[in-house]
Specification:
The strands form 4 sheets. A 4-stranded antiparallel β-sheet has the order 1-2-4-3. Strands 6-5-10-11 form a 4-stranded parallel β-sheet. The protein has a 3-stranded antiparallel β-sheet with strand order 7-8-9. Helix 2 packs across helix 3, helix 11 packs across helix 12 and helix 17 packs parallel to helix 20. It contains 20 helices and 13 strands. Among the domains are: 88 residues, Arginyl tRNA synthetase N-terminal domain (Gyrase A, domain 2); 111 residues, Isoleucyl-tRNA Synthetase, Domain 1. The protein is of the alpha/beta class. Bound molecules: arginine. Arginine (ARG) binds next to loops. It catalyses: tRNA(Arg) + L-arginine + ATP = L-arginyl-tRNA(Arg) + AMP + diphosphate. Belongs to the class-I aminoacyl-tRNA synthetase family. Its EC number is 6.1.1.19. GO terms for molecular function: arginine-tRNA ligase activity; ATP binding.
């Protein structure tokens, strides 16, 4: 248990013993410098008493609580301030116990207790289209949430949910039919086994798709070809389905590599296409339940409610052409997840601009009784913008490929390394690898440190700075501790019990103590930025500690050195653990 929760328990007991609600005892970090912690429950308790018609002075409540806790061994001093704040300074004994627990296990107490099965739907890349800057945020945020929930002890399944079932497939098929009409996939008479080897590469797909969609833009006949191909595919055309399976396989291979380079890994590569077989039964079920109704030839589910403040258009199950839509595949995916996984919770990490889409399918799902609405959450996010305040584009206004974005970051990181004189003695390969890690850390941290829904401006120079709240600063902090520990090892220095004496040591112990709470809060609020704040605060606390408390110099007595080394080691372990959750890999040296 953390020191802060032990204090909360003690205060809770005191409030309860005095006839108040124990929840008033919650202890929080202090906003002012008077003491590390404070309890503001006296005012709340007086407020509650007033509601019952009792008159209590909050300062009297605070004094009674303080008197009750006078002999508590966790507390050094307890001061009453203002209207009834209780400022709490923990005792040396409490600090030593806490430090001991932390050095034994710097990442203790993270589990949530009640473990859930959670599906996280993120990534959401589309088959045949190269990954671009627009795919960054879902991947980075989704991956962080996945790792965060796992750290809490939940079973988490990350699903890439490929976009592979819309008009874009019809575009590809029809374009390929124009280019290579003699392929057996287009031979109506052929009904045998289609070859295992794909007739197209990823480069072919990346070329065919824009070719087709551009051609169809102002040519209705060309568009019709794509529409018909889409309809035929969805109606079960065997050759088209075989082609689609190739498109998917080729794309997934490329996507695995692309996401892999970002440090993002999925457990499932399911997509829209793989739930298509479930659609007829699902539609039947919705009809049978009286939820699906015809509307001008289309099949819809009405989802509006009396208290709706905004217009709530119906869910579109089938277009009047009979075509399956984005709503339909997402609903069928829920039917599939229910049957295959039966998760307690599904989190969708998708651009905020799709908020209405998710509200619609969540309502329809709840009406159908597949999931409760509180089991489905859309976690939207804002956009990464250029300096013009619009979603980031290349200089000529095109979409920036993710690959190119990462290269830009690596180059920016290389410049920073040169400027800072870091890695001057590395061989070129080692240096490039460090630059890659620094660039990636810069990009991810800059993204995750914002509250999810905020937009931010892409600024490689600011992101890669080694000073300030940046990924590179954090990597550097961790690498520095690694190097201290290496030197200590060379000197044969020993580790020993942590004795927090210097205020900077105390502050570092308290910062370490706050980890489980930061993890719990970040998970509960689906807010990786809370964890970013924690690791940044921890790195700063370490920096102050290292400035004020020399470790390896001759003058430091052995017991103190041993204590400080243990504190440094615990900090590194927690820092690396936290950075690992937000997806930052720490190099051995820098
Ligand atoms: N492929 C979609 C897009 O590009 C994102 C998919 C998000 N996930 C979902 N279950 N709808 O917009």
């Amino acid at each position: 248990m953390t020191l802060q929760s032990r204090l909360s328990d003690a205060f809770g007991e005191a409030f309860a013993a005095l006839g108040h609600d124990a929840t008033f005892g919650v202890v929080v970090e202090s906003s002012k410098g008077d003491a590390p912690y404070q309890c503001n429950g006296a005012m709340a308790a007086a407020g509650a008493a007033k509601k019952r018609g009792e008159k209590l002075n909050p300062r009297d409540v605070a004094s009674a609580v303080a008197a009750h806790l006078a002999d508590n061994p966790l507390i050094e001093t307890l001061e009453i301030a203002g209207p009834g704040f209780l400022n709490i300074t923990p005792s040396a004994q409490a600090l030593a116990e806490t430090a001991q627990a932390i050095s034994e296990d710097p990442i203790r107490g993270l589990s949530a207790g009640a473990e859930l099965t959670i599906v996280i739907d993120y990534g959401g890349a589309n088959v045949a289209k190269p990954m671009h800057v627009g795919h960054l945020r879902s991947a980075v945020i989704g991956e962080a949430l996945k790792r965060l929930m796992r750290a809490r002890g939940h079973t988490v399944i990350g699903d890439a949910h490929l976009g592979d079932w819309g008009l874009q497939m019809g575009h590809l098929i029809s374009e390929l039919a124009i280019e290579q009409p003699s392929l057996i996939y287009f031979d109506e008479a052929y009904d045998g086994n289609y070859p295992d080897i794909s007739p197209v590469t990823m480069d072919d797909l990346a070329r065919l798709y824009p070719q087709a969609s551009n051609a169809a833009k102002d040519d209705a006949d060309r568009m019709e070809l794509s529409r018909v191909a889409t309809a035929d595919l969805q109606a079960g055309h065997k050759g088209y389905r075989a082609l689609l399976d190739h498109f998917i396989a080729v794309s997934v291979e490329a996507l695995k590599e692309g996401y892999g380079r970002l440090g993002v890994e999925f457990d499932l590569w399911n997509g829209e296409a793989c739930v298509d077989p479930l659609i007829p039964d699902m539609v039947e079920e919705l009809r049978h339940a009286g939820l699906a109704e015809e509307d001008g030839g289309a099949l819809i589910v009405r989802i509006e409610r009396e208290d709706d403040k905004k217009e709530m258009p119906p869910v579109m199950l089938l277009a009047s052409s009979g075509a399956v839509l984005y709503h339909t595949t997402d609903l069928a995916t829920l039917v599939d997840r229910k049957a295959q996984i039966n998760p307690d919770l599904i989190l969708y990490v998708v651009d905020q601009r799709q908020a209405l889409h998710f509200e619609q399918i969540f309502r329809a799902t709840a009406k159908a009784g597949w999931f409760r609405e509180d089991q489905l959450e859309h976690l939207g996010f804002g956009t990464m913008n250029g300096t013009d305040g619009k979603p980031f584009k290349t200089r000529d206004g095109g979409v920036l490929r993710l690959e190119d974005l990462m290269e830009m970051m690596q180059t920016a990181a290389e410049t920073r390394l040169t400027e800072s004189g870091i890695g001057a003695d590395f061989d070129p390969e080692e240096r490039a690898e460090v630059a890659r890690l620094v660039g990636l850390a810069a990009l991810k941290f800059a993204d995750l440190q914002n509250a999810r829904l905020t937009n931010y401006v892409f600024d490689p120079e600011r992101f890669t700075a080694f000073e300030g709240k940046t990924g590179p600063y954090l990597l550097y902090a961790a690498v520095r501790i690694k190097s201290i520990l290496r030197k200590a090892d060379d000197m044969g220095a020993a580790f020993g019990p942590i004795i927090p004496e210097d205020p900077a040591e105390v502050a570092l112990v308290l910062a370490l103590d706050a980890y489980p709470k930061a993890i719990a809060l970040a998970a509960e609020k689906r807010a990786p930025h809370i964890l970013c704040d924690h690791v940044y605060g921890l790195a700063q606390a370490f920096s102050r500690f290292y400035t004020n408390c020399p470790i390896l110099v001759d003058e430091t007595p052995e017991v103190i050195r041993a204590s400080r080394l243990s504190l440094a080691k615990a900090t590194l372990e927690q820092l690396e653990h936290g950075l690992g959750i937000i997806g930052l890999d720490v190099p051995e040296k820098m």
